[in-house]
Amino acid sequence: MVVSPHKSMMPRESTRGRLRSHEACLNCRRKKTRCPAERPSCSNCLRLNQPCLYSPARRTSRGGQSEDRLASLEEKVNLILSGSRPVQGARPEKREELHDIPEVGYSKNSNPSSGDPSYDQISPGSGSVSLGFGNDDSNSQPSSATVSRGVELYFHYCNRQPIWCFDYEDLEDKGCLSDELVYSILALTARFSPKPWESQRYGSTARTLIMLRVANGTVDLETIESLCLLSYSSFIDGDVQLGRFHLGLAFQLCRSAMMDYESAYPSESPFTERKKRLFWSLQSLEQTYGQQNGFLSLPAEILRPFHGPPGAWQKDAESKLPPLPRDDIGCSTPTDIGIWSLALHFGWVWSRVRTYVSDCAQNRLKEPWRHDSMYAMVISDLTEVENKLSQCHRYDSVKFYERTADELRKNRAYWTPWLKLQFTYHCILTVLNHPFLYIVASQSNPNLSIPNAFWRRSSELVLLHATWLVRMIDMVSEKKMRLIDPFFGHAAAIAATVHLYYCCAVDPRLKQKSKIDFDKCRTFLKSFVPFSVACRILDQTLDKMTRIASGSEKVDYEWMPSRIHLSIPLMWDILQVNCTPESPETSTGGLLHPSLVPVISREEAGESSCTLEVIVAMSPEVTVNTADGGQAAHMQPQPRVSKINSAPSTPGSLALAEKLVAPADSLMMNTPWLWTGQFPDVESVDFQDTESSMGNVDGFSSWWDFGNL
């Protein structure tokens, strides 16, 4: 091969097998296409109507050799990666239908305490997953087929759940994707392939390429999208430090590009919608997984995704709020807010709840019944966001429970954000009214006297919405919907703590029902374990707390406690979704040296000083109605019995054979009174026999119909 003299001294890329052209414009170099190198604009850029830019003139050393810093650094990266090459031979392939990929669910009949739930796992080498990655050598670039399958897996499992960086047409031309975006997609989706261990290698390569972009000042939109994907992947893996690093770097790059200003989104740009989706996807991750306290934390009010009542914060923030992306799936009128954007609205309220829990954990609770408390402000924000929910998206309008599994699978782009919205709504009210928060607060502050009216109302709400979470879990199982976001597992763990709390109710019917709901939450959480380290740590935490509460290794149907012991450190771990491994060696990431890994002090969970003895002196009695397609409850309808048999009963005869009837004097046909061991005279209180004064309330709707969204 004849080489011109002025190119003979240029550095050769050992793994690409060709000489690097120093005349290519930045666009052609990014796309890895042949550049005609016309000045001032090449014909390729003129044809695509895009600005054509060239790298600045390079200095020449004394020996006459050109100093191409970018080429030199890329060559070093290739050597480090043992010969890996960028993806430049990939070609667009025909999109495959995913009807043969099974939706993984869980069985409501499985026994979570046995550790062997009867759900289909996505495991290495599983023959049930038809879209596995190709047999790539670990030291070679991913093949075209591997990239295509990774993109398909992304859209099947991860798109709009919760991140929404691009639509399918944005990735259709796979040969033009940047290297870091390809490796980031593979890092996120490898967990659903027969080779989940490849995720870490892909992620490491993607990080190297991203930092190379940053070092050379060639960051583009796909680079920030790659950080978004890597951040989500790290959160699924429970690597909070690495995930927040990726998220923080993406935010800083967005600020450098002024993407936090509305002026950065011109209507005539073809990338405007894609930039909107990226910016708000980052916000969605920040709401659920970001740092909620600390000096460097961003106040939630600054990125409020809607315009609430006028306040001081709006004077500086309103003018630069980026617009929400265009999302009309499932909307009935042009003025309706899209379901993904609505889920983002509720996610913002959830971020406020996370801050509230963090304040409670640090003993900074302001009396929640006060009008200026954070509890009252969060309820106000939630009501305002709920008021923005169009009728076309509401539970009674969409009738999720009537949809077929095939219909839900074909419209995952709508139903996964809809489920996220529903879970978030019920989880907000469950956590805000969780009795653990106020029991601990009253013990830590002897002068804090919680009014009976607040106890009554909050107890009604926590049981109401924890039961709704179980109902949503049941529907997801019945429809065989595969959910990936660890937030769903966290919601199940929170609901499980509430039902564990009610396992010591006086009423044996509620006690048995709470045990069944508790098992459902545990089994649903275990369905996330095969692909999410974060949910595996949550599951282990919940198992530890269950052993402490029951005093045994497993909770069976014979367990009918009158009091339980809740581990305070483990309860905070679940409510604050602390998924950090106890030892740095078990961390899945590689961001921090062990000397910098935050040390989380955990007291021994089995010590009596770290447990809370809980006694439920009187339990709620509720009416369960399974009309309207089973949307009201998850208990089978049975003839009403007027008297409870005191003899031991089987789970079926006790939990499912009786209708639970609400007391007539209840505010919401549900009046639980919840106390702890700190009140010594609670057992001597003479409660009225609610069953004798119940009256006929069969004409009322199911009690949790009031909590419907």
Describe the structure.
There is one protein chain. This protein is mostly helical and 709 residues long. It has a domain at 24-56: Zn(2)-C6 fungal-type DNA-binding domain (CD2-Gal4). 43% of the residues lie in helices and 3% in strands. It contains 24 helices and 5 strands. It has helices at residues 5-8, 26-31, 43-48, 69-80, 144-158, 179-189, 198-216, 221-236, 240-256, 272-289, 312-317, 339-361, 374-387, 395-398, 405-410, 412-432, 435-444, 452-478, 486-501, 508-526, 533-550, 568-575, 627-630, 651-655, and strands at residues 12-13, 18-19, 563-567, 611-618, 673-676. The strands form 2 sheets. The protein has a 3-stranded antiparallel beta sheet. Strands 1-2 form a two-stranded antiparallel ribbon. A hairpin with a 4-residue loop joins β1 and β2. α4 runs antiparallel to α7 (198-216) and α9 packs antiparallel against α10 (272-289). The protein is elongated, with a radius of gyration of 28 Å. The termini are far apart. Mean pLDDT is 73; it is low at 1-21, 58-67, 82-132, 307-318, 584-588, 603-608 and 617-704. Residues 24-54 form the Zn(2)-C6 fungal-type domain. One of its GO terms (molecular function) is zinc ion binding.
